[in-house]
Amino acid sequence: MNADSPPSPEHDAQLAALQSLTTSAAANIPGVDFASITLYSEDGTLRTVAATDQLAEKIDAVQYELREGPCYGAVTEDRFVLVNDMSATTDYPRLAPRVVGLGVWAQAAMQLTHHGRRAAGLNLYARTPGAFDRSTVEIAEMFASHAATLLEYVEQVEHLNEALRTRTDIGTAVGILMERYGIDRHRAFKFLVRSSNNRNTKLRALARDVIDGSFGSTTEEDRASQQWPD
Questions:
Q1: Could you give the domains of the chain?
Q2: How does DSSP classify residue 84?
Q3: 185-199 and 134-181 helices cross at what angle (nearest 10)?
Q4: Contacting residues for 197 by C-beta, under 8 A, at least 6 apart
Q5: pLDDT tens digits, 60-113
Q6: Where is pLDDT greater, at 9 or 18?
Q7: For residue 140, which of 110, 98, 119 has the smallest C-alpha distance?
């Protein structure tokens, strides 16, 4: 979702669905006290998109900060990570004391999706050491499968929404250029494409500049807009 665009009803519905799934996971997976879902973006940023407790968000954030822990491992390297006693593990020397200090003793994290540098993970937390057993893993696998399907759907919808927004912005910019230069739609679109190439700027970004009035054409571009053949 772009910063200049308000959340759409579809986006809100997707987040509500992820929240519902996370709540169900916490309520039905044995040993789990609360849960969350992490998204790992192509630019390396991590964020929690659903959580059943503020403590889950807080512990997620600590792992994002340290780049250490089951939550981080599940979306970057490992498909599944389980630590049944944080006070006894040597795998996370910086994280473990902070997590135990917050009253959480066990954590499991499962990778849900992974596409290039994009990934998502389901995080499960327990206030009791040794809370997770085989049934925890088996039922968590089932929830992970459902969550992965939902996330795939969310990603497809986001791509579709982005494509529609791009098409709308370009169409609006073309209309503005038609009026500005007194040219037809074909020439206006060609002007936009060529300016995008010359400036090494993405087409939608340039279209947004035209729409918000920050686009300043050069003399050469103005002249070319009248000279390009149909």
A1: 9-145 (3.30.450.40), 160-227 (1.10.10.10)
A2: S
A3: 120
A4: none
A5: 999 999 999 999 999 998 889 999 999 999 999 999 999 999 999 999 999 888
A6: 18
A7: 110
Strand partners, 39: 47, 120
Contact status, residue 119 vs residue 113, Cβ threshold 8 Å? yes
Amino acid making up residue 220:
E
Contact 193, 211 (CB under 8 A): no
User: Hey, how many other C-beta atoms are within 10 angstroms of the C-beta on 90?
Assistant: 6
Of 163, 64, 206, 43, which is closest to residue 121 (Cα–Cα)? Answer: 64
With beta carbons less than 8 A apart as the criterion, state whether 122 and 144 touch.
yes
The CA distance from 53 to 104, in Å, is 12
Q: With the C-alpha atoms ordered 204, 154, 63, 4, is the resulting torsion angle positive or negative?
A: positive
